Amino acid sequence: MTARNISRFWEWGRKIICVGRNYADHAKELKNAIPTEPILFLKPPSAYVREGSSILVPRYSNNLHHEVELGVVIGKGGTAIPESAAMEHVAGYALCLDMTARDIQDVCKSKGLPWTRAKAFNTSCPVKRLHLPDDFLIPYLISYISEFITLEEGDLILTGTPKGVSAVQEHDQLQAGIQDVVTMSFRVDRQEK
Ligand SMILES: CC(=O)CC(=O)C(=O)O
Ligand SMILES: [Mg+2]
Question: Which SUPFAM superfamilies match (predicted)?
Answer without folding.
Answer: FAH
